[in-house]
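Re: export button greyed out
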Amino acid sequence: MTTPYTFSQNAYAGDLQKTYAHLGDGEESGANVAIAGRVMLLRRQGKLAFGTMRDSTGEIQLFALSQVTTEFESFVKLHLGDWVGVRGEVVRTQRGELSVKVAQWELLAEARHNFGEKWSGIADVDLRYRHREADLWANPETRKALTLRSDVIRAFRERLWAGGFLEVETPMLNVMATGASARPFTTFHNSLDSDFFLRIAPELWLKRLVVGGYERVFELGRVFRNEGLSPRHNPEFTMLELYVAYWDYKDMMAFVEETVSGVAIDVLGTTEITYQGRSLSLAAPWEKKTMAELTSAAVGEDVSVHSSLEKLSSLLLERNATVEKSWGTGRLLAELFELTCETDLWDPIFVTEHPVEVSPLARRHRDDEALTERFESYAVGRELSNGFSELTDPDDQRKRFEDQARLAAAGDEEAMGIDEDYIRSLEWGLPPTAGLGIGIDRLVMLLADVSNIREVIAFPTLKPLRD
RNA sequence: GCGCCGAUAGCUCAAUUGGCAGAGCAUUUGACUCUUAAUCAACAGGUUCCGGGUUCAAGUCCCGGUCGGCGCACCA
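Workaround output, generated via the alternate export path:
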């Protein structure tokens, strides 16, 4: 089958629907257009035929007549899913459907496989994820969610550019996997004869750029974590990280609530949304509570990083949680928080003042050296963002890394190692800086009102098919 | 990694207690000059996910496997 190499399209279905909304029933516009798209439906009625064509902007009816349309008999034999280019006049049929009266048309691509389901779409999730192209064609909801993802990313970029941020790219292949607590993927470089790790976070590189004098930087990109799959976890996911010199974590919290609610308005036109049947408001300001406050309220007694090991341990053990001997009160408090509070945080909230023990890259709190100036924002029971006043002191950073190294030696596969190169960077001088990370996939899930992360990733990670 | 659930025509789904494998849409053929998921008529379409087992008889019951969904664990 030979198909043309080009088609001179000069109109889109969605634009035509708007431009000719005024056209009366049975009226002809006199305007000739060239449109292209996929044939979604075809209804023949003797020497007339009505088709529904979809392009990237919407749908419009194709109105073919044996006396007007070239190769009419071939036109009515088009298959659902075929791509066509059509030239003709914009008209509204007697029954009131805006149409292009097909004068000339050409087959642009044949669909050898099609789906008879005009109303159920494709329900087989395996097929939907492995052949997203078919899913996009058959299921409007899929297109909606993936388009929203693109809209969200554009909205962030535009807001960041407007805020004076520089977009940068940092290495994905790293000698150490650091900047977060996670197990990495490993790979190998042949000529360098070296193992590399896929990045789990760009954090340390970005702070080095701040050391270098870029006061506002961001990176929007993929990170890779070698962990289990779930409706909320894909091994590769998209993270927005940004750093601002001279800010602290309070400045960053204000930025987060303003930016996230602003992005919601950019893409949805509102901050008032519904997620899985339950409403919430993303409008700023968001509630702020310390980790100790929330955990105390949840367990019914005062707890903090200064509580005894025994007290925190027993509260965890009462709840059938496991407790490691190597954990201090900071880790115990964080575990207790996650166990008792996290899933109940429906409306947007900043949880603040995380223990130093679980925050190896965050600056110590100005009022309590067992805590850090850190926040995590939560909504619908999930973490949406994480940020802090950055640790700028190279000596303290070395101590934190040494603590991490001890955990690693004790068997913690997610602990960081000592990154001498990064400590040297801090010795050049990192100004007071606040940093932020936002999981874009999860935010898109929230805005798109979908419960599975795979619905917002075009080609999610799946188990390879055997034989 | 563990537990529960699922897989039947190209697509969406039925199939009673273990008793002839079915429908709609799509495809193919025909009718139809304003349809809207058009309608009407006819034809065709099957490794019931894969491999074993029980039984006179298995889509259905049992065992093993593959892939997926959900939950747990890990994490964002």
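Residues 140-286+347-456 of chain A form a domain with the BirA Bifunctional Protein; domain 2 fold (CATH 3.30.930.10). The button fix ships in the next patch.
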